[in-house]
Amino acid sequence: MLTKIWNNKIVMAALMLAAGLVIGWMIFSPATDERGEESESHDHASVWTCSMHPNVRQSEPGKCPICGMDLVPLNTGIDDDPGTVHMSETAIRLANIQTTVIAEGDATREIRLNGKVKPDERRISSQTAHVGGRIEQLLVNFTGEYVQRGAVIARVYAPELITAQRELMEAFKISESQPDLYRAAREKLRNWKFTDAQIDGMLDANRPVETYPIHADVSGVVWKRNVSVGDYVERGASLFEVVDLSKVWVTLNRLSIAWAIEIGLVREDDYGLIDSLSSSYGGVIWAKEVEDYQRYGVIVADNGSDMYFQGVPSTQWDMDEMLRL
Fold first, then answer.
1. What are the residue ranges spanned by the domains of the chain?
2. Which of 224, 245, 241 is nearest to 309 (CA)?
3. What is the pLDDT of residue 204?
4. 124-243: what CATH class?
5. Helix axes 196-205 and 179-191, enclosed angle (nearest 10)
6. What pTM does this model have?
7. Which of 58, 91, 185, 289 is deepest in the core (most CB within 10 A)?
């Protein structure tokens, strides 16, 4: 009986020992293997680098001389192509690297150039007096006012016009016998920019008109006023300068031009700066006549909505399409 009990104890002890060995192997074996692999990897790593500065490479562990981060072993299996940059997952997250899939589309670029707006000199017109006299009334009182072609902008007392009207009325009375004289009287008034309807109105009134209305020859903004009420003007004298601001010039200083040339947006040749581009407000063309000693460029821009006017400094032009050179 004692022998049987003793044998059972031996069997139980053997089973417990075997179970303990199995449990111990399961607990300690993975950690040992992991440390062994890590140790082996570190032992085999001959180059250490920084996750944030891949150009840093040392032969032993340590700190990055640039940022102070711990150096990590360099994976020698990675391609050493100098044109390739390798970053760990941690480095990618720290650098906030974002990628996108390349797709076909229009290439666009926003370009901002500082310039100063001025009128297009080719669109400046002079409103002249077609007959001499004294300014009795001005219907345009300040520069910047918009005038419409055909609108009355001033009234002039013109003794010469009164005489011409009397000649017309007398010539009309003998027009059947002296048609050439009548035609000459009408032609004289036409040369003063009177229309046939206005001349017929003088005949219908049967009395001279003492004040002569001056009608605007063109539409635009009054750029300069040369007369005041009470001034005496001669025939052909300039009363106003009117400018069409549907297109304006923008002068660019030398810094803007130098920057545009440096990054290849425009080209410089023997004739100056010339290229074409487009903006959200219309076509823009580099003027060809650029003074070498002044070193500034001019662009002609659509201004249909009158967004820009003379003298505006540092106007920003947003070019929403890439320059085609």
1. 1-37, 45-100, 111-121+246-319, 124-243
2. 245
3. 86
4. mainly beta
5. 120
6. 0.47
7. 185
